[in-house]
Amino acid sequence: MSGEEEVDKNKRRILLAAATAMGGIGAAYVATPFIISMDPSARAEAAGAPVEVDISKLQYGQLLTVEWRGKPVWILRRDAEMLKNMMSLNDMLRDPHSDELSQQPVYAKNDYRSLNKEYMVMIGICTHLGCAPTFRPELGPEDLGPEWKGGFFCPCHGSRYDLAGRVFAGVPAPSNLVVPPYRFVTSTRLLIGVDPEHA
Ligand code: FES
To answer: What is the residue with the minimal CA distance to atom 1 of ligand 1?
Structure first.
């Protein structure tokens, strides 16, 4: 094989590798338009260390799942409509004002249960018997009814939560989803497992 042919072959290999990597990224976004599963560098730290998460690519309406202390932590980016819809639900919720203090740090005891109302951070484990609720962001789907404004539905026994993890009244789950300690390192980087410096 001539030297030129060898260079061409190598070039082709590199291009193919790049195209495959790009294809992989594209497919992940297309297949899961609302949910991204991420394996942060911190997987190795799952034993308990804080987990730093880059949220710069999180779009409105998307849910990112990371692992912290062996548990799924959801980060949901909520748009203005989602926030507005949530506020119309208070009468249907068991603990709309997050009065049960064990379910969130003090800095998340507010209308949006968050440090920044756009980003909701919560542990994705149902407070009934520990199943994994599913993310149901759509409005009024047939199976959940016309009143549904987007939220989380637990398939095990039918518990429902809104987009802040606030539990509806009359379902088996006794309390809101847990908000873990977290803080913003920058406007696009979160640290899960650590309180804000002046909390
Ligand atoms: S575990 Fe979720 S409703 Fe029972």
So the answer is: 129
70 shares a domain with 143:
yes
Predicted local distance difference test score (pLDDT) of residue 79? 97
Q: Which residue has the higher pLDDT, 39 or 66?
A: 66
From the CB of 131, is ligand 1 less than 6 Å away? yes
pLDDT in tens, 30-64: 334 445 555 555 454 546 799 999 999 999 999 99
d(CA 151, CA 149): 7
- Whether 132 has a pLDDT exceeding 50, the answer reads yes
Residue 132 sits in which domain range?
33-192
Active site residue 157: yes
Considering the domain boundaries, does residue 58 fall inside one? yes
